[in-house]
Specification:
74% of the residues lie in helices and 0% in strands. The chain has 137 residues and is an all-alpha fold.
Length: 137
């Protein structure tokens, strides 16, 4: 993936969309921590925001690597970043969907959908790169 192509613009847009969805979900967790069903008592508001920053650093690093000439490493990090977006589904291992409010389910769902879009774009881009490299040799 050449950082100057349309692909990078799409990658950037999907990454920003997922980052926004992820922030919305993490912020909702942090601000409504006491009412999320069955979350560990060790979770804190500050800890949740810190976790979001750590996860987001993976995505930012991946984008930077793609942009500055290390697309394979960057796409790998972005794949990991996107896969972390499925962690929100773990809420449903602690309590069923019906035990969560509409707002909780909406933020979880938005994060998962945005993560899915980014993940599938990254897998497609990485596959195209790999096939291109294989066919060139």
């Amino acid at each position: 993936m050449d950082a100057g192509t349309r692909d990078f613009t799409v990658l950037l847009g999907l990454t920003l969309l997922y980052a926004a969805a992820s922030f919305l979900h993490f912020a909702h967790n942090a601000e409504y921590l006491a009412v999320y069903p069955n979350l560990p008592a060790s979770f804190t508001r500050l800890g949740i925001y810190a976790a979001w920053l750590a996860v987001s650093a993976i995505g930012a690093s991946g984008l930077a690597l793609v942009r500055f000439g290390r697309p394979n490493a960057g796409l790998a990090l972005l794949g990991i970043y996107a896969a972390l977006g499925f962690d929100g589904l773990l809420h449903y291992t602690r309590a069923p969907i019906a035990a969560h409010t509409a707002g909780m389910n909406a933020t979880i769902g938005f994060e998962v959908v945005a993560a899915s879009a980014l993940f599938f774009f990254v897998v497609n881009a990485a596959t195209r790169r790999l096939l291109g490299e294989l066919l060139d040799h």
